[in-house]
Amino acid sequence: MPVSLISSHSGARRSGGARAAHKGQQTKAAIVDAALQLATQVGLEGLSIGAVAEATGMSKSGVFAHFGSREELQISVIHEYHQRFEQEVFQPAMALARGLPRLKALFDHWMQRTSVEIDSGCIYISGAAEFDDRPGPVRDALAESVRIWLAAMRRAIVQCRECGQLRADADEAQMLFGIHGLILASHYEARFLKLPGAIERAHRGFDNILARYALPEPA
């Protein structure tokens, strides 16, 4: 066979393989998206290959071809949730200056997402209740995502102190604990107890934390 034909056939195979790989990635992304939507309603524990197959209109074998186990599916959902959380909460705040503007933006974006998740549910919170005493890869993936996010908040608090906007003795661990507690309390009150005003109380609580530790602005 002439070299040109060999090259042509080889290029066609590579092109066809690339298209198949791209289609496979799109299908997998669609499955993860459907699984994430389902997990916000039934929790990570409620996910199954069969339930996701029904939600996507695929066969069980089709879903299984992309995720070899229920555990792998659960972990993929956690990673997708974490990626979306970073895009909505973390990345917009990084465009602001270090210090209080960035810390306030992180909290504001976090609260905006919490407001939405009062109806849809939070994977971090529901997952912690499901897997707090169940060691394994799913718990590890969930805990690592939460640790990464809390570490980012902690860095933002430390930067406020380094910028001279917080007292030198400001305890970043205690501040982070208080801020994280506001998120959890607002979600619990609004979603579980259906108490009005939880989001507003969380914002006032955040202002109180800053007032306790912040230095007065220069005249």
Which features would summarize this protein structure in a list?
DNA-binding; Homeodomain-like_sf; elongated; mainly alpha; Arc Repressor Mutant, subunit A; DNA binding; 219 residues; HTH_TetR; 0% strand; TetR/AcrR family transcriptional regulator
Describe this structure in words.
By secondary structure, the protein is mainly α. The chain has two domains: 1-68, Homeodomain-like (Arc Repressor Mutant, subunit A), CATH 1.10.10; 70-219, Tetracycline Repressor, domain 2, CATH 1.10.357.10. Helices cover 79% and strands 0% of the residues. The protein has nine helices and no strands. The chain has helices at 3-42, 49-56, 60-66, 70-94, 100-120, 123-131, 137-162, 172-192, 198-213. It starts with a helix and ends in a 6-residue tail after the last helix. The mean pLDDT is 90.
Break the fold down into its secondary structure elements and pairings.
Blueprint: H1 3-42, H2 49-56, H3 60-66, H4 70-94, H5 100-120, H6 123-131, H7 137-162, H8 172-192, H9 198-213
Radius of gyration: 23 Å
Count, helices: 9
What is the CA–CA distance across the termini? 83 Å
* Count of the domains: 2
> What can be said about the biggest beta sheet?
none
Give a brief description:
The protein is an all-alpha fold. It has helices spanning 3-42, 49-56, 60-66, 70-94, 100-120, 123-131, 137-162, 172-192, 198-213.
